[in-house]
Amino acid sequence: MDINGIMQRLPYYLDAGITVSIVGASGIGKTDAVYQTIEKLEKRDGHEWGRCTQYPIFYNPSDVIGYLGLGEQEIIDEQQRKVLAQVSIFSQPPWMVSDDGRQMNGFKRGVVIFDEDDKAQPDVKKALAPVKLYRRVQRWALHAGIGIVCIANDDSGRHGSTKDFDFEINRKHILRATTSVRGWMEWADKNKVDPLFKAFAEDHVETVFSGKLPEKQGPFCTPRSLVSFSKVAKFMMDPDGRITDKDGFIEGANGAIGGPAARDLVTYFDTREEVPTWAEIVKDPGRAKVSQSAAAQMMSAHICAHNVDAKTCEQAVRYAKRLRPEFHIVFARSATQRDFMLVNHEAFEKWTDDEPQLVALLNALGGVA
């Protein structure tokens, strides 16, 4: 299922107390999906959830169970008296402490996330099995309200995955995360990803969503690496998305998403010159430039969807209607993902009344959650 499907169904497993492993290609947003699910559950429940993110790839078996040392423990002696005795005690393991340094058991609900779980050494996987399956090892135990989520890469490339064990596989549930373009676009709309990078991803699906690793090891393009570069690229672009530091942009893209994808990205951004600015669209939506290029119209649709609000909805719809019908869908879907209340705007309602044959548009509006 796609990332949105994972986010929708993950609460079922957490509420049922079932350990779940999310498996999918690198860079499709598996970890972010878990974090955002926790945020949604906090709103649902009205209280904070604890979060502990661990990377077993760095573990030794002793890191799982804690380190053995000398300590005192209250025991019952032969005369049935409570006494303090010198005993060997394992230190507290790291999965008992939240990311911000608090005890996980101090939270009513929470999640321990074992990220890159597939790359842990076999001996570490064996040691972690009681934690994943029963939330405990030695004297350390998480209470029943703390869920366990493992995140792993699939076998589509050189991920360094190590041997899994049937006794563990049979005791946890596996959710396969797929690289759905539609699912990722919905995530990108909700997370305010730069509209030009969203347009590139939708226009270059094979480049961004292929999941293929380069023959020679080096940077490669995934939704994750593309979004990561977009956060740096904004400092090399003006507010309207035109590149102001082309050398830095090219070098940065090469180092983030690899040479072939970088070339595609730079070429695509050259299309920006064929697209009006948002200010030009708002000022005169009936005369603002509409390129004959499909790539430029895709970009225009995303720029409108990224910026539209109730005050500018009429202008945005008027301009979007001048694009090809397939880009009506792009605009409507992305705009309403950002703000579903736009479907009630007079301009949107009139659009659907005037063009009832746009079934896909109606589905896009009605299907937004």
Write the layout of secondary structure elements.
Layout: H1 3-16, E1 20-24, H2 30-45, E2 49-54, H3 61-65, E3 68-76, E4 82-90, E5 109-114, H4 122-134, E6 136-137, E7 140-141, E8 146-153, H5 166-169, E9 173-177, H6 181-190, H7 195-203, H8 205-209, H9 223-233, H10 246-257, H11 259-270, H12 278-283, H13 294-307, H14 313-320, H15 325-338, H16 346-354, H17 359-366
Helix pairs in contact: 1-2, 6-15, 7-13, 9-10, 10-11, 13-15, 14-16, 15-17
Q: What structural class is derived from the secondary structure elements? A: alpha/beta
Beta-strand fraction estimate:
5-15%
The H-level CATH homologous superfamily of the domain at 3-59 and 99-177, spelled out, is P-loop containing nucleotide triphosphate hydrolases
Low-confidence stretches: none
Helical fraction equals 40-55%
Overall 3D shape: elongated
CATH architecture of the domain at 3-59 and 99-177: 3-Layer(aba) Sandwich
DSSP strand count:
9
Walk me through this protein's architecture.
The chain is elongated and about 95 Å long. Among the domains are: 3-59 and 99-177, Rossmann fold (3-Layer(aba) Sandwich); 275-369. With 369 residues, it is of the alpha/beta class. The mean pLDDT is 88. The protein has helices at 3-16, 30-45, 61-65, 122-134, 166-169, 181-190, 195-203, 205-209, 223-233, 246-257, 259-270, 278-283, 294-307, 313-320, 325-338, 346-354, 359-366, and strands at 20-24, 49-54, 68-76, 82-90, 109-114, 136-137, 140-141, 146-153, 173-177. It contains 17 helices and 9 strands. Strands 2-5-8-1-9 form a 5-stranded parallel beta sheet, with helices on both faces.
